[in-house]
Design goal:
alpha+beta, 2 domains
């Protein structure tokens, strides 16, 4: 009898160990440890949208392996909170996804949220997309114009390469950020942007004027010629708002003054668009910018 109790105890212990190993094998740490994508993926995003798809795959094999069309499309539907009818046969669902196809699906999803993405074909830097179909080429240009995709280099996109699981996670996370920004963006009006050479305090300054909130961002630069603008304002949570900036370096073809300069940009927000006890922060305000 004692032997049976010990045997049962050992069996239960073995099951618990196996369950623990199984649960850990899919954890963010075990999957991403030492992989280049580790610093690009948020653990919560992986756990929410990808963890259930990797139960039988491990580490390098998973992250560097090609994602299937079926997996990518089903995750895309979950991400956009829509019931997606996959127009693929069972055989097609198991085929690897190409980069040009992934981009078409992504841009279709984001254009459902933001209507049409405007792009300038003259800004096309990729030399290997000229032979693509018109819809494929336009999708690549649209996605690149809003920072949804990058090439392998400035000139190479590699449209016919397979999308790896690691690349798919990064693409999906970027899409998720675009959708979140669309849903939570706060409208504003730029009042003025001024470049000065008089010393000023850098930072974020907030005041009120009647039914408006006035926000000024001041940034120091080491030369003249920099441009600074507010890109968007996004609600992060209850009464918390994040300001993103666009900073453009001087044109290298133009001469600039080698003097400290300050760029001051001021925007205006209607109070009705924010909570009464609001707080603002700048997400990407650098402490001085080097050329």
């Amino acid at each position: 009898m004692e032997f049976m109790k010990n045997k049962i105890a050992i069996s239960l212990s073995t099951i618990l160990v196996l369950l623990t190993i199984s649960a850990y094998s899919n954890s963010f740490e075990s999957i991403f440890s030492g992989h280049w994508a580790e610093k690009h993926i948020e653990p919560d995003f992986y756990e929410t949208y990808f963890e259930k798809h990797v139960s039988s795959l491990q580490s390098e094999f998973l992250l560097n392996g090609a994602i299937t069309k079926g997996d990518f499309y089903s995750i895309l539907g979950c991400l956009t909170q829509e019931t997606v009818t996959i127009p693929l046969t069972e055989e097609e669902k198991n085929k690897p996804l190409l980069r040009k196809t992934a981009v078409m699906w992504l841009i279709n999803a984001i254009e459902d949220e933001e209507r049409k993405v405007v792009y300038d074909e003259k800004e096309n830097m990729f030399i290997d997309i000229k032979g693509l179909e018109k819809s494929e080429k336009e999708s690549v240009l649209r996605a690149h114009s809003i920072g949804l995709i990058n090439g392998y280099s400035e000139r190479i996109f590699a449209p016919n390469d397979k999308v790896t699981y690691a690349q798919a996670m990064i693409l999906m996370q970027r899409l998720n950020n675009k959708i979140m920004i669309t849903e939570n963006t706060i409208p504003f009006v730029t009042i003025e942007t001024i470049q000065e050479h008089t010393a000023r305090q850098e930072g974020l300054f907030v005041s009120e004027k009647e039914d408006k909130i006035i926000i000024t961002v001041v940034q120091r630069f080491n030369t003249s010629g920099y441009q600074l603008e507010v890109a968007n304002i996004v609600k992060l949570g209850d009464a918390k708002y994040a300001i993103s900036l666009n900073i453009t370096k001087p044109d290298p073809k133009h001469m600039v003054l080698q003097v400290i300069s300050f760029v001051r940009t001021t925007i205006e927000i209607d109070k009705k668009h924010v909570d009464s006890n609001y707080t603002f922060e700048v997400l990407n305000l650098p402490k001085g910018v080097e050329r």
